[in-house]
Amino acid sequence: MLPPAAAALVLALAVSPWWWIAAAPALALAALGCWDLLQRRHSILRNYPLLGHARFLLEDIRPELQQYFIERNHDGRPYDRDVRSTVYQRAKGIEAEEPFGSERDLYERGYEYLVPSIAPRPVPEDPPTVRVGGPDCDRPYDMALLNVSAMSFGALSANAILALNKGAALGGFAHDTGEGGLSEYHLRHGGDLIWELGTGYFGCRTDEGGFDAARFEAKVAAHPQVKCVSLKLSQGAKPGIGGVLPGPKVNAEIAAVRGVPEGRAVISPPYHQVFSTPRELVLFIARLRELAGGRPVGIKLCVGARLQVLALCKAMLDEGVTPDFVVVDGAEGGTGAAPLEFADILGTPLTEGLMTVHNALVGTGLRGRIRIGASGKVATGSDIVKRLTQGADFTNAARAMMFAVGCVQAQSCHTNTCPVGVATQDPRRARALDVADKSLRVRRYQAATVRSAQQIMAAMGLDGPQGLRPHLLLRRTGAAGQVLSYAELYEWLEPGQLLADPPASWAADWTAADPDRFTV
To answer: Contact, 178 vs 185, CB < 8 A?
Structure first.
């Protein structure tokens, strides 16, 4: 015999089916509570059935709560709201201005600022460019101060690649393909391209995964949009490890672009197969330049040991061969998904890496033959000016360009569930990104940011980047009010100094550097 309450419930359900509307949720919750008690995977659900699910819900939406309700305008990570808003406004053609003064603590330790002049200069009408191409280059290229950094088709959606390249074509700046190969989406709108070759040699690889010189030569010759070639040694987000593109993401289109089997995971090894010493690397650069018809060929790396940079310089001197450019990727770079430990503690940040490469090339007398690019959290005009002051000739931006095409820093790039269609291969999500609109935003953002850099340099009393020097960038170094310039904080070598009389701080590394081995 049923208890009175249960009997009443059965009678009510039998008399009126409307009771099922209230009973169904109660029964579902009861079933879920029973499952929570019986399952063995989550201890919190066994101790707190039903209520424990609130913890998982809050954990899922924590990044959104942090970004929209908790973080201040200037302390968010990886990019704070002030920087994101600046990019969004410039991409939309809105003046990026801030009322009522700075929100930053100008007296905190580590605060950096540029030195204005009492006699500012007029802002030049035309944006400056940098001629890239050393003495062995037959087809030099005029590089803009700000370009699209390396992001592959596969990591980004087809529409994102189309928007970036069309924006580059409209604005007259370069678009790095990333290591995923040359796709139809890179080529459709005719924007200038830097073809990046990684350890997987995608788009010009043999069936065994090695470098196919004939395919490379034919592809470069067939596409005049390719203005430069960049040989990727490592990247800031994950130096020293390769990449894996899971098999389910390798559809027919991506397989064709990369030259790999469809449906099978694609593994980029952590090292190159065609060279293993600094000397072999330098000789391979010369071979690539010949295969590329005299186009500029450079390297991209996240700096590790200074000794290895010097070993590479010695190989250049021995062989009389230099790359046309070196892109220094800071450890703060982040478009490539990486293990947390690699992203947080491995690799040299851009400031130190950039100055290491600059000084090594100056000290060996090679700086005049090689241009230096800087990539790693470059987003504003002041970022450009700072990096030029530290030794760069031009800059590249990846995440800032993603913001320009609609990225909201959801940090779900590796999940294929990007909410705005930028970093996904899901056609339904990617269709949300309108190429015509976003390409204009890319062009506007790049032009406004370079213009901002020009305005800053003019306010410093300079006619252009050639006047920037380390003494014009200052850093507050202590609570006692001490402020030092970069000229005082860091050592700057004189041209050829390592060849004539290495300073004590560089002598040991210079002596130990071997052009026939990378080993530290």
So the answer is: no
Write the pLDDT tens digit of every residue in 442-500: 999 999 999 999 999 999 999 999 999 999 999 999 766 799 999 999 999 999 999 99
* Integer Cα distance of 430 and 156 in angstroms: 9
Q: Cα separation of 452 and 446, whole Å? A: 10
Give Cα 354 distance to the centre of its chain. 15
Where are the strands (E) in 185-271, listed by range? 193-197, 226-232, 244-245, 266-267
Contact (CB, 8 A) for 453 and 124: no
> How far apart are alpha carbons 330 and 517 in whole angstroms?
23
Q: Is 483 strand, coil or helix?
A: strand
Q: Give the whole-angstrom CA distance, residue 309 versus residue 358.
A: 10
Sheet holding 483-485: strands in order across? 112-114, 473-476, 483-485
The crossing angle, in degrees rounded to 10, of helices 435-459 and 81-91 is: 110
Q: What's the CA gap between 214 and 53, in Å, rounded?
A: 58
Q: Name the nearest CA neighbour of 254 among 399, 157, 148.
A: 157
For helices 306-319 and 504-512, angle between their N-to-C axes, nearest 10 degrees: 60
Tell me how far the alpha carbon of residue 81 is from its chain's centroid: 18
Over residues 317-364, the pLDDT tens digits come to: 999 999 999 999 998 876 656 677 777 778 899 999 999 999 999 999
CA angle 91, 93, 98 (to 5 degrees): 90
Annotate 87-151 with DSSP letters as a single string.
HHHHHTT-----TTS--S-TTSTT-EEEPP-SS--PPPSSPPEEEE--TT-SS-EEEESEEE---
The DSSP secondary-structure symbol of 172 reads T
Stated pTM of the model: 0.90
Widest distance between CA atoms in the chain? 104
Give the containing element (helix H, strand E) for 374.
strand 371-375
Helix H segments across 239-337? 252-258, 278-291, 306-319
